[in-house]
Structure formats: C-alpha cells, structure tokens
Write a structure and sequence with these properties.
This protein has 349 residues and is α+β, with helices and mostly antiparallel strands. It contains ten helices and twelve strands. The protein has helices at 3-9, 77-95, 117-133, 139-145, 154-161, 204-213, 219-238, 242-260, 272-282, 305-318, and strands at residues 17-32, 41-59, 64-67, 101-107, 164-167, 179-183, 190-195, 288-291, 298-302, 326-330, 338-341, 347-348. The strands form two sheets. Strands 1, 2, 3, 4, 5, 6, 11 and 12 form an eight-stranded mixed sheet that branches. A four-stranded antiparallel sheet has the order 8-9-7-10. The protein is globular and about 60 Å long.
Length: 349
C-alpha cells in the first residue's frame, strides 16, 4: 500500500474549495550534464514572481477541467487541459479517492519557454488534490507520482521554498534531486525577462534526442561550474554582493550555453533576437545574463529596478530590442507556492 493510500484511509475532511498558486522558476544552468562523478545534472535555479500556474479545485458531479477566460491569448491550453486531466487521473488511481472534482486553470505561463511550466502545473494539481482530501504528502512524493523532476529538482524545491536553489541531481533510482543549498534572494535585485513568443524551446522527444546527441561534458568544465556556484554565486547572494553574483551566473551560462549550442542552432540562445538584445546589454551594464533552460526566454538580473528600467529604455533607443519581443521586469519569489482553503485569501504552502 502506497503512502498516499495509507494516508487517505484515515481522511474524511474535504475543503469546500482549494486554490493553489505555483510559482515559475528560471533554470540558471546544470553543473554536470554528463555525470563525471556518477551523478548527472545538478541544477541552479531561481524562483520568480509572475507567470504562476493558478488552479482552483472544487466538488463536481463528474471530473471536469476548465480553462479560465483570461488564458484565451496564452498558447498551449489544449495541452494544459490534457495534462491536468491526466494528473487528476493518476492521483485518483494512486489514492483510490475518485470523488469527482472540477479543476479550473486561471493562469499559466507559456509552455516550453523556460519557466518550468510542466512541473508547476503538476504540483499545483497534486497539492490542490491532496489539500482538498486532507492529505499531507511531501512535494517530492507528488513529483514522483506525476513524473516530474527527472533532470532538475529546482522546480520541486522551489514550490516549497522559493528563492535561489541548488540541487544535487536526480538519484540513481530516478528519485527527485535532493536540495543542497537554499538562499533568500535579495528583493531589490531585479529580473528582466526577454520573451520571444514566436517559438518554443525544446521539449519531450526532441529534447531527449538533442541531449543524446551532445558530446560528453568535460570533467574540467563541470569542476569550473561547481566552483563558480559554490564559491562565487552562493556566497554573493548570501552577502548581497551583486557583482560577483552577476559574473558567476554569466560565466555558468556561457559555459553551459556553449555546450548546448549545437542543439540550438549554434548559439547559447534559442532566439537570435533575444540573444542580440542580451549580448548588447552585457556590454553596457553589470548583469547576470543568460537563457532559462532551452529558452527561448532570456534573462538579465540587474542590481535594481531603476537600473533595469534605464537599461530597457536605452535598448529601445538603440534599436536593439526587436518589436516582436516582450520584456517583463519582476523579482524573486522567496516564499514558494501559496495554498488557499475555500476563500480568496491565500496562505503559504
């Protein structure tokens, strides 16, 4: 008998309704895609405000999945509907709790864009389902049931805690990556997101093919990445020292971006327009610059909102910002997901 079934057997309480806000994350880079010491991947990531997956669950006559009207202009909603229905079916079969539920998705980031949308959506459904049934199930267990965390664990840990996160890569048995380090991210450091909504990043079978075709990752580069993260990026965040943080993340992104470039048309950026804007920015301002996961979303983390706004205005004046790109300024999320029980007010997960 699984943990979920055992917990379910003693549960009789149902919340009237449940809402979950699952935060997006930026994937700032792998430390060792090849596993030179036997353990592959390990990820550095940052949880951000904005681009949440917002889900509401309530009782129903039969299982139903609705897409909120506000998502009419966000691509990928047919895929999201199918995913939600599949996650609900998995949870009901795993627990034996088949009470019909209505799940309504009220907000979601664009899929396959570097925000970890698949993990957000899965964990939002999982946490809403368990909360509605009164179950206490660890987020890592939910991720395993729903098939998430096979490479990066920052979305799973970020759901619980927010902030800047470093994981140790998935276990040999496929278990979700353990969290190695967590730091509260300085509130004043501002994240500039540069989105190219004309394309998607690699995913699914195409991602697996691309990963398999890459050359072995040199152990010396894995050592360099680990050194940068452990002795430059993490201390800088803890001590709120912006310049070494920016230099460290940019260095990590350059190394890992060059490695993945053969799968991205020869560039560290999936979108040439995003790359053009960010490489211009690199030359005028201290910033942590790169691409989240397979993109196409790029990012520049700057020391303040005022600096970010000044740089954005300069990019527009210089004509380096393609009109088709969308730029969003945001900050880190240092709290993780929010769960509400039967009321609009939300509480920490």
């Amino acid at each position: 008998m699984s943990f979920l079934r055992s917990a379910a057997a003693s549960t009789s309480h149902h919340a009237r309704s449940v809402t979950v806000d699952a935060p997006a994350r930026l994937h700032l880079g792998f430390l060792d895609p090849n596993g030179s010491l036997g353990r592959r991947f390990a990820s550095l990531g940052l949880v951000i405000e904005g681009f949440e997956a917002r889900l509401a669950v309530s009782a129903a006559a039969r299982n139903a999945v609705e897409i909120g009207a506000g998502l009419g202009t966000v691509p990928g909603q047919d895929e999201n509907r199918e995913r939600i229905a599949r996650y609900l079916d998995l949870l009901q079969r795993e627990t034996g709790l088949d009470t019909p539920l209505s799940l309504r998705l009220n907000a979601a980031p664009p899929p396959h864009s570097g925000f970890g949308s698949g993990t957000q959506l899965a964990l939002a459904v999982g946490r809403a389902f368990c909360t509605w049934h009164g179950l206490e199930v660890p987020t890592r267990r939910l991720a395993a049931i729903l098939g998430r965390g096979k490479r990066s664990g920052v979305g799973i840990a970020g759901f619980d805690r927010g902030g800047l996160l470093l994981d140790g890569g998935p276990g040999a048995d496929g278990s979700a990556a353990p969290l190695l380090a967590h730091a509260t991210f300085p509130a004043e450091w501002t994240v500039m997101l540069v989105l190219d909504e004309r394309m998607d990043g690699l995913c699914g079978a195409a991602e697996r093919v691309a990963m398999d075709a890459l050359a072995p990752f040199p152990r010396a580069l894995a050592a360099d990445l680990s050194h940068q993260v452990l002795m430059r990026v993490l201390p800088a965040v803890i001590e709120r020292d912006f310049e070494p943080f920016a230099a460290g993340v940019s260095h990590v992104q350059r190394l890992i971006g060059d490695y993945f470039a053969p799968a991205q048309g020869g560039s560290m950026y999936t979108s040439a327009a995003v790359g053009h804007m960010l490489e211009w920015l690199r030359g005028i301002e201290a910033a942590a610059i790169g691409q989240s996961s397979w993109g196409p979303t790029g990012f520049a983390i700057l020391r303040s909102r005022a600096v970010a706004e000044r740089v954005l205005a300069a990019a527009r004046a210089a004509g380096v910002l393609d009109p088709a790109l969308r730029v969003v300024l945001t900050t880190a999320n240092n709290r993780g997901a929010r769960v509400g029980l039967g009321a609009p007010a939300l509480q920490r997960a």
